[in-house]
Specification:
Strand order of the largest sheet: 1-8-3-6
Helix content: 40-55%
Largest sheet: 4 strands, antiparallel
Number of helices: 9
Distance between the termini: 26 Å
Number of strands: 8
Shape: globular
């Protein structure tokens, strides 16, 4: 997956002046406090959030529980993909777990500029590919690994999650109870 992040960064670094100017004009940087919502359920995700610092969490409410689906760290792109691409109300929330600084790009403005700048089309394509590959990997792990193996995968691939996120949210992300996660951690 790092390969895609590197490709995205390289593409942006090589934007021509007109493309870079267009992207700069439709984007801005904002800092959110811990606990702030960047997106609430039933709102339309009309912005994308490129994380510059801090941690975000995406989750949805189901049967009076918060089900964590993603964590976002530096250089991650946060959005409710379904809501963003279809411009329909989101089922998910995106919340700051720490103070977070993000670069925000407006959906409608991006769509307009994308028609004018081929490099923005390439960026959109790479970001969509990256998300599809990430999602496919997550679904594969969920269906082929037991809870201990999923926890081990996080320890191997993303140890910063374990170090920086509450255990209740990690358990939800792994689709296990907090008690099960505690037993898994005790065996390590």
């Amino acid at each position: 997956m790092q390969h895609y992040i590197d490709k995205i960064k390289k593409l942006i670094e090589n934007f021509d002046d007109a493309t870079l100017k267009a992207l700069t004009e439709i984007s801005y940087t904002k800092t959110f406090s811990k606990g702030d919502y960047l997106l609430k359920a039933d709102s339309i995700c009309d912005k994308s959030f490129w994380v510059e610092s801090g941690i975000l969490r995406k989750y949805y409410a189901y049967n009076d529980k918060e089900i964590t689906t993603e964590f976002y760290f530096k250089d991650d792109l946060a959005m409710s993909f379904d809501s963003y691409t279809q411009q329909k109300p989101s089922r998910e929330c995106i919340q700051a777990l720490t103070e977070v600084t993000v670069n925000i790009t407006d959906y409608s403005s991006f769509q307009i500029e994308k028609l004018k700048h081929r490099q923005l089309q390439e960026l959109d394509f790479l970001m969509t590919e990256y998300y599809a590959l990430w999602l496919e990997e997550k679904v594969f792990e969920l269906h082929t690994q037991n809870a201990t193996e999923r926890y081990q995968t996080i320890l191997t691939k993303s140890p910063h999650i374990i170090q920086q996120v509450q255990l209740t949210q990690i358990a939800s992300y792994l689709n296990v109870s907090l008690e099960t996660l505690s037993r898994i951690r005790a065996k390590k």
